[in-house]
Structures are given as structure tokens and as C-alpha cells.
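R.M. (postdoc): so does anyone remember the format we settled on? I'll just put the C-alpha cells first.
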């Protein structure tokens, strides 16, 4: 009788370890950050080469795509300011309920949600 398939060893720093196995060790977190930066830079290069890819002046173009155009730059600045205010307010404000939290972040999409958690 053959033994069943052995469980795959977890390779830290990979998308599988972070996404599927939810490992949050230093190596996996660093790997995730590196992948996010890489994706962001790829998208930014694509939208710079072909600005018709996104609707400019939206949080999606400004934040997810990092579009550097004049319409998107102020939006990204506003989002960053909102982050900073949120960070500053943390611990002094009443904590938000999960639904309030969700409503605040929902307009910006899933990716933005991940980036601020
Ligand atoms: Zn890990
Ligand atoms: Zn733009």
C-alpha cells in the first residue's frame, strides 16, 4: 500500500503561504509586500503607457493603479490624508462597528481594504 500524498511543506514568502495558509511570519509578510509593490508598479507602468485603461479621477485609478496624472493625483492625496487621520484618531475615537467600518471602506474596493488593514 502506498502512502497518501504527503502534505506540502510550507514555503514561506510565497503567495500560497500567505494567501492559502494565512501565514503571517516576517518572511511571508515581506513577500506579500514585495508582491503588492510589484503589482502596483506593473499597473502604474501600464496605465502610464496607456491612460485609456482606467477612468481618471476615481479612487480606483488613483489608488489601485497609482495613476500619476493630474486628475488622479489629488484623489490619492485625499485618500492618504484620510488614512493619516484615521491612524491619528485610532485609540481616541469611539471604535467603529464592523458595519460602519465596511461602509467607509466599501467605496474603495477590496484591494484598498486589504492595503489598510
Ligand atoms: Zn510564513
Ligand atoms: Zn489618472
Amino acid at each position: 500500500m502506498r502512502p497518501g500524498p504527503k502534505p506540502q511543506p510550507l514555503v514561506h514568502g510565497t503567495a500560497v503561504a500567505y494567501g492559502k495558509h494565512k501565514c503571517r511570519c516576517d518572511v511571508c509578510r515581506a513577500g506579500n509586500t514585495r508582491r503588492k509593490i510589484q503589482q502596483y508598479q506593473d499597473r502604474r507602468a501600464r496605465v502610464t503607457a496607456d491612460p485609456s485603461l482606467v477612468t481618471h479621477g476615481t479612487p480606483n485609478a488613483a489608488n489601485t493603479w497609482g495613476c500619476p496624472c493630474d486628475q488622479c493625483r489629488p484623489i490619492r492625496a485625499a485618500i492618504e490624508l484620510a488614512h493619516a487621520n484615521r491612524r491619528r484618531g485610532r485609540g481616541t475615537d469611539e471604535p467603529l462597528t464592523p458595519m460602519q467600518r465596511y461602509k467607509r471602506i466599501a467605496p474603495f474596493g477590496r484591494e484598498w481594504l486589504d492595503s489598510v488593514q
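R.M.: ...and that's the designed sequence above, right after the C-alpha cells. Also worth knowing: The longest helix spans residues 26-49. Residues 56-117 form one domain.
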